[in-house]
Structure formats: C-alpha cells, structure tokens
Amino acid sequence: AGEALKGKKVALYFSAEWCGDCTPITGMLATLYEMVNEDEKELEIVWVSADEDEEQMYRYSKKHADYLMIPYGSVLRQQLPAMYGVFGGRHVGRYPGVERKSGIPGLVVINEAGDVLVFDGV
C-alpha cells in the first residue's frame, strides 16, 4: 500500500455498514474521489472499517468508490482508530485510555509521515 500512497494526498475514512450516518457521507465521498481523480490520481482514500464481521465489511465496500481498504484481519483496523481517536461510541471499550476525538463517520487527511493535515468528524 505504501507505493500506492506515495506522492498523493491520503484521507483515512472511518465508517461502517451499521452506521446510518455513514451511508450518505460514503456516497458523497465516492463522488468526490472520482471527481478529484478524473484526470490524474491525486487523492487516495483508505477505508478503515468499523464493521463487526468480514462479511458486513465486504458488503458495505461495494458502496465505496475504488479506494483502498484495510483488510478485515489487519491489526491496522484497531491501531488506526486508536492512533487518531476516531471510533464509534459502541467501540469505546476497545480503546481504554484513548481520547475519542470523533465518532464515525470520520475523515482524517494525513501526510506521508502520518501527521494530521485535516481532521473532520464529518
């Protein structure tokens, strides 16, 4: 994934199928992604799923544009929400001691070092 992200703006999109507020944002984000990348791929969105199981995640992924997603079994699905403080209220118990800065949907634009450039709880 590192090569796919090199030299691009990167937005981490935290969402889940069970999140009713995520559905309209997911649609708008897919449209934005396609518009921004129409001529040249400048933006990469990485979807960080908060879904409860792999089937739910893959079902919801069909509503997304052609952006990258963290695999269900990857430790990054737990590390990224903790690192950026973006997770659903039902998951607060998974991250003891972590300040919750936003629920989902959440969008965090980062640079290549992982530093936050834009933080939007959407």
Structure description:
The two termini are 25 Å apart. The model has no long low-confidence stretch (mean pLDDT 89). 30% of the residues lie in helices and 21% in strands. It contains four helices and five strands. It has 122 residues and is of the alpha/beta class. The chain has a five-stranded mixed beta sheet with strand order 3-2-1-4-5, sandwiched between helices. It is globular.
Number of DSSP strand runs = 5
The low-confidence runs, each spanning 5 or more residues with pLDDT under 50, are none
Oligomer: single chain
Main beta-sheet strand count, sense and barrel state = 5 strands, mixed
Gross morphology is: globular
Distance between the termini: 25 Å
The helix tally amounts to: 4
The spatial strand order of the largest sheet comes to 3-2-1-4-5
Mean pLDDT: 89
Q: Nearest-angstrom radius of gyration?
A: 14 Å
How do the helices and strands follow one another from N- to C-terminus? HEHEHEHEE
* Percent strand: 15-25%
Tell me the structural class.
Answer: alpha/beta
Summarize the amount of helix as a percent range: 25-40%
Topology:
Blueprint: H1 2-5, E1 9-15, H2 22-36, E2 43-49, H3 54-61, E3 68-69, H4 76-84, E4 106-110, E5 116-120
Parallel strand pairs: 1-2, 2-3
Antiparallel strand pairs: 1-4, 4-5
Q: What characteristics describe this protein?
A:
5-stranded mixed sheet
Report a brief summary of the structure:
By secondary structure, the chain is α/β, with parallel strands linked by helices. It is 30% helix and 21% strand.
